[in-house]
């Protein structure tokens, strides 16, 4: 809990690493994942870094891995163990265990030059296989298309030619062809294939460009043909164009080729066409065998690559990460070593020394890595913030860090958010049925956690679901609890313990069973059927909202006290914490006291009073008529004197917060100026300004700036106390909206269908009610309540103690992300 409440104590370590051991040293530190290295070459561009050439080299190797992954994605699912090589039988692949063993032992330990050679050879082999297969596939598709055109052309040649010289029935009849009734003249022809959608365009262009001196017939090819450019199957048609003259033929040929058609040399003689088709069939069958063998070789190669690719990926990524870290080091030429700096938790110094010793031994170096702790307290250096959190705390910590990262050693709001966040959400979303549905959903997420975890690495929305699974669970459980308090399950009251009210005979008035009767837990269910139910629930929820808000804000101010004590800002204790807590409690705390006192008082035993005291009137008169309380509005004895004292405290706390601190800071600065020749140690906060920043190196003290800053802080707190208290009324508003919407859906949809005596209406009504409940309440209302709870924690709670200024998050160098991505490739 200590590490979660305050960030882990950090230390800054400087390393002096020999050139021969630097790579292995960074690798061992990465395995531990405990050091956040500092970039000592911030002034250098990326191309001026000492190891930029190695990074470029690894970038090229990474491109090769991307090429392998792209080839695998295009190939789709691969056979697991056996490949078919046609008539030569089956050749078994290496089993998975053998490949894994090779990957673990050889790839992770092999020299980078040798690994680069392996990748280049594999890339060349794969490119050669792909090129050969593409060439064979191109020939295969060309032969298939030629055969299809030859068959279709034969059908076109056998068609009747009664209208041979009246070209294009779909053309304009106004323009007549130039060739008419010239039987016996020999005509040339072109045959080919084109995409089905372009045949009409081709026909029209040929008609206009030849002025009708051509005749086109086409027939659709039954089977779709693969397009080598798009790698998709398309429907094509075979066509024959009859024409006269060489020049027209050249023009027709160019037009056909411009539209992407493939032209083939087809004979008009039927015997020659049959011989051509038989010849093409033999070539297709032979090429099919060769193509299958080529595909089998490619699949064999890709299968081997698929099994070994994760280890290549992991090795290359780790090497690149190591050299990127080494680019942050400074070169000390005089000692033939590199200088590095890094932050790590102070309690892990021994683990660091063990890793450094192991790295030195592994390279056989006689000179160990020298480490030295740097005293950063007297320097203008901000340590990074690091919290040791569990998976349960991760989501709540993410909520806090979305607002701001905590300053070093500042109190972390997350431990308190674990309870307050789901509770305030549940105040707005309180319903036993809705909370149960949310809990069931979170349990389903836990059941499918492994699958969701894998999906979370690729999808940001799923990642939010994975990280927030414990938040959803807590919100569901707390919503069930507040639903029991409100005594509602899908807006229906529950009589769990027996109501304390009984109806009168022949009347709608309810009477108490006994004077001492009290419903043991939550709201009595009888209130749900009364005409004053809304008025009663409004009063209860509004006052509860104010109570919860004041309690949380007081907690925030108390946490600021612990921050002041920890950072030894004693001036802030006297002139920030004390006036703030007095101001808040003297008025708003007193308001909470009146609410609770009125609840606990039995007004039936008060003479002349029936409990009709209006607290708003009392609070208004707190300032307008201090020291006077009307007799019919008096809640307790000596109320006028108590309110006078509290009003004085409220007023005096404002100048106490505003005036003394700037003058005291100026007095201390002047005292230091009089002692320039020798440094006088002043206790704790003497060197701290109102924000806890060090002033030791400041030569000038801007009193006006400090006073204005303190004035802004005072005005912000006084006005913020009022606005923040009013802001908590959103708990009442959203709770009321959720309850009334649930009731409307239940009564106006489901119960309405129950009153209709038509078969099937109940099922229809239930479906409509379930859908509206899920969409409006479970999705929209829950999201709205979540965002409002988020705002209450970020604005109303955090601004009382949580600064989060200039903070840096601790990001240690490790291989977790790389190993996770490699595991995804293995899966």
From TrEMBL:
Its main location: membrane. Residues 105-146 form a coiled coil. The chain crosses the membrane at residues 423-446, 466-486, 544-565, 577-597, 645-664, 758-780. InterPro entries: V-ATPase_116kDa_su, V-type_ATPase_116kDa_su_euka. It is found in: Membrane. It is a multi-pass membrane protein. Keywords: Coiled coil, Hydrogen ion transport, Ion transport, Membrane, Transmembrane, Transmembrane helix, Transport. Belongs to the V-ATPase 116 kDa subunit family. Essential component of the vacuolar proton pump (V-ATPase), a multimeric enzyme that catalyzes the translocation of protons across the membranes. Required for assembly and activity of the V-ATPase. This is V-type proton ATPase subunit a.
């Amino acid at each position: 809990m200590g590490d979660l409440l305050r960030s882990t104590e950090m230390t800054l370590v400087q390393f002096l690493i020999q050139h021969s051991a630097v790579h292995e040293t960074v690798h061992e530190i990465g395995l531990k994942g405990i050091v956040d290295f500092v970039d000592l070459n911030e002034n250098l561009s990326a191309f001026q870094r000492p190891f930029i050439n190695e990074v470029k080299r690894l970038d090229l190797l990474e491109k090769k891995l991307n090429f392998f992954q792209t080839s695998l994605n295009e190939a789709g699912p691969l056979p697991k163990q056996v490949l078919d090589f046609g008539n030569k039988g089956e050749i078994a692949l290496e089993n998975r265990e053998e490949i894994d063993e090779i990957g673990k032992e050889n790839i992770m330990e092999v020299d980078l030059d040798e690994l680069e050679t392996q990748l280049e050879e594999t890339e060349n082999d794969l490119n050669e296989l792909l090129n050969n297969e593409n060439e064979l596939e191109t020939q295969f598709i060309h032969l298939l298309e030629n055969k299809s055109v030859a068959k279709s052309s034969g059908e076109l040649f056998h068609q009747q030619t009664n209208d041979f010289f009246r070209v294009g029935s779909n053309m304009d009849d106004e323009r007549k062809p130039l060739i008419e009734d010239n039987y016996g003249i020999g005509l040339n022809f072109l045959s080919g294939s084109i995409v089905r959608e372009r045949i009409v365009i081709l026909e029209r262009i040929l008609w206009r460009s030849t002025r009708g001196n051509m005749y086109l017939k086409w027939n659709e090819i039954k089977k779709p043909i693969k397009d080598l450019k798009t790698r998709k199957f398309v429907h094509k048609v075979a066509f024959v164009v009859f024409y006269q003259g060489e020049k027209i033929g050249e023009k027709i040929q160019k037009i056909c080729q411009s539209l992407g058609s493939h032209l083939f040399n087809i004979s008009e003689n039927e015997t020659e066409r049959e011989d051509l088709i038989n010849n093409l069939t033999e070539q297709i069958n032979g090429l099919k065998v060769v193509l299958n063998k080529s595909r089998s070789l490619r699949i064999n190669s890709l299968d081997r690559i698929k099994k070994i690719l994760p280890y290549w990926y992991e090795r290359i990524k780790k090497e690149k990460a190591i050299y990127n870290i080494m680019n942050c080091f400074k070169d000390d030429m005089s000692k033939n070593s590199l200088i590095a700096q890094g932050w790590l938790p102070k309690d892990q110094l021994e683990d660091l020394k063990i890793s450094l010793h192991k790295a030195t031994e592994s390279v056989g170096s006689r000179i160990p890595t020298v480490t030295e702790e740097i005293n950063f307290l007297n320097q203008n250096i901000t340590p990074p913030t690091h919290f040791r959190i569990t998976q349960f705390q991760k989501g709540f910590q993410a909520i806090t860090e979305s607002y701001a990262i905590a300053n070093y050693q500042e109190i972390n709001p997350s431990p308190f958010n674990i309870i307050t966040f789901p509770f305030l959400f549940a105040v707005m979303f309180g319903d036993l049925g809705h909370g149960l549905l949310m809990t069931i959903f979170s349990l389903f997420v836990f059941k499918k956690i492994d699958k969701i975890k894998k999906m979370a690495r690729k999808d940001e929305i799923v990642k939010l679901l994975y990280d927030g699974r414990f938040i959803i669970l807590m919100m569901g459980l707390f919503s069930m609890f507040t639903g029991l308090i409100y005594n509602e399950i899908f807006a229906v009251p529950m009589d769990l313990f027996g109501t304390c009210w009984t109806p009168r005979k022949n009347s709608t008035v309810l009477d108490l069973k006994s004077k001492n009767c009290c419903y043991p837990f939550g709201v009595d269910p009888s209130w749900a059927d009364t005409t004053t139910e809304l008025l009663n629930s409004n009063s209860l929820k509004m006052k509860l909202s104010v109570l919860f808000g004041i309690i949380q804000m007081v907690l925030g101010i108390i946490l600021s006290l612990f921050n002041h004590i920890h950072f030894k800002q004693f001036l802030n204790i006297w002139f920030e914490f004390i006036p703030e807590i007095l101001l808040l409690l003297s008025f708003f705390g007193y308001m909470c006291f009146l609410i609770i006192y009125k609840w606990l008082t039995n007004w039936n035993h008060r003479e002349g009073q029936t409990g009709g005291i209006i607290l708003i009137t009392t609070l208004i008169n707190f300032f307008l008529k201090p020291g006077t309380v009307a007799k019919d509005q008096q809640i307790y004895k000596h109320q006028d004197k108590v309110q006078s004292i509290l009003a004085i405290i409220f007023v005096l706390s404002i100048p106490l917060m505003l005036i003394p601190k700037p003058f005291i800071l100026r007095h201390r600065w002047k005292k230091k100026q009089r002692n320039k020749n020798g440094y006088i140690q002043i206790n704790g906060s003497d060197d701290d300004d109102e924000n806890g920043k060090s002033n030791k190196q400041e030569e000038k003290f801007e009193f006006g700036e400090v006073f204005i800053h303190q004035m802004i802080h005072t005005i912000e707190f006084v006005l913020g106390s009022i606005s923040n208290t009013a802001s908590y009324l959103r708990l009442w508003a959203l709770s009321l909206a959720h309850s009334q919407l649930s009731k409307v859906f239940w009564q106006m949809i489901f119960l309405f269908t129950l009153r209709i005596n038509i078969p099937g209406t109940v099922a229809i009504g239930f479906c409509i009610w379930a859908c509206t409940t899920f969409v409006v309440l479970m999705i929209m209302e829950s999201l709205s309540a979540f965002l409002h709870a988020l705002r209450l924690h970020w604005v109303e709670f955090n601004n009382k103690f949580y600064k989060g200024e200039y903070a840096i998050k601790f990001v240690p160098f490790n291989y977790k992300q790389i190993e996770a991505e490699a595991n995804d490739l293995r899966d």
